[in-house]
Amino acid sequence: MSDWKKVFAIIFTGQLFSTLSSMVVGYALIFWLSIKTGSAEVLAYATIASLLPHMVLGLFTGVYVDRWNRKRTMIIADIFIALCTLVIAILFYTSNVRILYIYILLVMRSAGMAFHVPAMQASVPLLAPKDKLMRIAGINNMIQSVSTIASPALAALLISLFDLTWILLIDVAGALIACVSLMMVHIPDPERNSNVQPHVFKELLNGMREIYCKPGLLWMFILAVVSTFFIMPIAAMFPLMTLQHFSGTTYQMSIVEICWGIGMLAGGAVLGYSWLGKHKVIIINLMYIMLGLTFMFSGILPKSGFIIFTAITAIGGASAAVYSGAFTVVMQTMVEPSALGRVFSLYNSITLLPSMIGLLATGFIADTIGIGNAFIISGTAIGSMGIAAFFVPPIREMVTEELRSRKS
């Protein structure tokens, strides 16, 4: 096994434990909120609490990620998340569980992830050959998928057996395992002038320049931002779709999440095929269309169509995994390594911005037009963007270049 493969084996082992534990706790919190409140607004606010700090801080964290030691940044972020979760667990143990505590926990975790996520994404191209990036993205998505498959069932089981206090401690253990795995490997940093002090706004503008100086990448960013506006409210309503539209149970909520994870696992597996690596832009556009169709068909299902809903959800998970992997590799190959931290943090923040607006309207959407209609409208919009992308000149040029390179 080559050195870079050993490094990734160690890192991804730690990330598997960290991701699985984090998702188990995340689903436990969602299930608890859904059962206790049954409110679309509460679920939307919880989602906002988990995204807003990442969005705001992410505008600036990339500047420091590109300056700091990336391995140390990830370790400190993991330790911070573990300590925050431990504090909230102690609060739950010493007093009654309150929704406010959950919001606080989500905010703190989001702040830590604002540093961890771009640091990890920016480190990958420095550890592996470029022609292996698509496969690595697939492995990363498969880790996410395995966690998505296992965590809903585990969360449903744990929340029925234990108090939320003890479930939170699982997240602490997962973060510590991730820290240990990172300590065992060497992660290189890009070359930089250490004598120059970081100028946050100037370097932030340089990161933005990396995006808008490449017209194709800029338009792909724009489409990603708009699509997130339609995706995030629907993502927050999946539990309520099961509970209200299909008159389901907590167990059925976990089944839906497991099906999404199975789809992501399948999507992550196919990312290793070389054909996909040569047609990344085409695949991204097609996945918009595929995901949009899954939302549309979900919305038109009758109340007796829960089984079909789970199958469609699996297809949606596969579409999301392929899209995410392909888009990540496009950025990793088009952007200079020294600027990747800024570009990824900007991407993570900018794509979340419109989703805040959509999430704030989640309660209104669910109560006014109905959850089923919300799925139909969102799916139509996302699918239409996938079709329109083929007609945007800079993106069309990237598609033509992919087809030309294949022939050559």
Short overview:
The chain has one domain: Growth Hormone, Chain: A (Up-down Bundle), CATH 1.20.1250. It is 85% helix and 0% strand.
List keywords for this structure.
85% helix; 408 residues; mainly alpha; 16 helices; single chain; Growth Hormone, Chain: A; globular
**What is the CA-atom radius of gyration, in angstroms?**
21 Å
CATH topology: Growth Hormone, Chain: A
Shape: globular
What does the largest sheet look like?
none
Polypeptide structure, described:
With 408 residues, the protein is mostly helical. It has one domain: Growth Hormone, Chain: A (Up-down Bundle). Helices cover 85% and strands 0% of the residues. The protein has 16 helices and no strands. Helix 2 runs parallel beside helix 4, helix 2 runs antiparallel to helix 14 and helix 8 runs antiparallel to helix 9. The model has no long low-confidence stretch (mean pLDDT 77).
Layout of secondary structure:
Blueprint: H1 3-37, H2 40-65, H3 70-94, H4 99-127, H5 133-161, H6 164-183, H7 200-212, H8 215-245, H9 250-270, H10 274-277, H11 280-300, H12 306-334, H13 340-360, H14 362-368, H15 371-389, H16 393-407
